[in-house]
Design brief:
The chain is of the alpha+beta class and about 100 residues long. The protein is about 20% helix and about 40% strand. It has a single domain, classed as Alpha-Beta Plaits (2-Layer Sandwich). It is built from two helices and four strands, in the order βαββαβ. The chain has a four-stranded antiparallel β-sheet with strand order 2-3-1-4, with helices on one face. Strand 2 and strand 3 form a beta hairpin. The longest helix has 10 residues.
Length: about 100
Amino acid sequence: MATVRRLVLDVLKPHDPPLVAFTDRIAEVGGVVGVSTTLIELDREVQNVEVTLEGDELDVAAIEAAIEQLGGTVHSVDQVACGERVVGDRRSAGEF
């Protein structure tokens, strides 16, 4: 199994728990060193958020289970970084 060091997820979550509590709970999952959650879209009943997690060895199944326990649903895995270190995104020559 690959050693996952960064994971970016598109998540649909209810308003409760609030974003800070939701993010704090995800940060408690084993292997997670840091997590940030960005509000993408707000609806009357739900929030669409982007969750970015980093750690030395992320347990993807445990992270998804924690999100589901909080009433959220993972819509997609938008980025994964594996290996000895995390590689940053680079713009292509046409994007300068």
